[in-house]
Design brief:
The chain is of the alpha+beta class. It has a domain of 124 residues: Cytidine Deaminase, domain 2 (3-Layer(aba) Sandwich). The chain is built from 5 helices and 5 strands, in the order H-E-E-H-E-H-E-E-H-H. The protein has a 5-stranded mixed β-sheet. The longest helix has 31 residues. It starts with 23 loop residues before the first helix and ends with a helix.
Length: 206
């Protein structure tokens, strides 16, 4: 079976991406799209653009993509880094819970593949056409570092003398477990925000 390098459109020459600002001229067509679409930009070791690849097209407010599909083209293109780009047709550039979870999973998978997820960029719809970098959002950084609860010391049986304690190595926390904790905390945050919005709406109605 022959492996093919993934490219879409004309090849890029002397196009370098160093921040989310450089993404917009390349992906500005997403600003007028009527549904969410997810693209992956493939970069070389100098952050030069190799290719842009369409991964998924969803409904008005959601586009799903398996992690393996995100990295398949990057591996074939021998990419050093990738940038995730998707649009919000609503014009609201605020990252959703799914956006944050997908970015976290992609970053962990990129570490295993040796491909850096340089950024995850949102392009808003026609009303604002603005972009926001999820990985630079303060609240994403906060929930990407969820404090791990410390294990309580074991209780000794009554009447048994304390002997020398044997220190056991801690089991490394898997990426899936860490992402599950992040997802649970983000869901609680989302529920809290909804409750506050409901209270504000009720107070305004009164």
């Amino acid at each position: 079976m022959m492996l093919r390098v993934v490219t879409q459109g004309k090849p890029f020459r002397n196009v370098f991406i160093n921040s989310e600002v450089d993404v917009y001229p390349i992906m500005s067509f997403l600003a007028t799209a009527d549904r969410e679409m997810l693209y992956v930009l493939h970069l070389d070791s100098r952050n030069g653009l190799i290719a842009k690849e369409g991964i998924a097209m969803g409904a008005l407010n959601m586009a799903h993509a398996p992690i393996r599909e995100i990295f398949k083209g990057a591996i074939l293109n021998n990419s050093k880094a990738i940038i995730l780009v998707h649009n919000h047709p609503s014009g609201d550039e605020t990252p959703s819970l799914n956006d944050v979870i997908l970015t976290g999973k992609a970053k962990d998978a990129g570490t295993l593949h040796g491909i850096q997820v340089m950024d995850s960029v949102i392009i808003a719809g026609m009303r604002s056409m603005s972009i926001i970098s999820i990985t630079e959002a303060q609240w994403f950084k906060r929930y990407n570092k969820v404090p791990r609860p410390e294990a309580s010391p074991p209780k000794h049986a009554a009447g048994v003398a304390d002997g020398p304690r044997i220190s056991r190595p801690k089991r490394p926390t898997s990426a899936a477990a860490r992402l599950d904790r992040i997802e649970r905390d983000l869901k609680r945050l989302d529920e809290l925000m909804k409750r506050r919005q409901t209270k504000c709406a009720m107070s305004m109605a009164d």
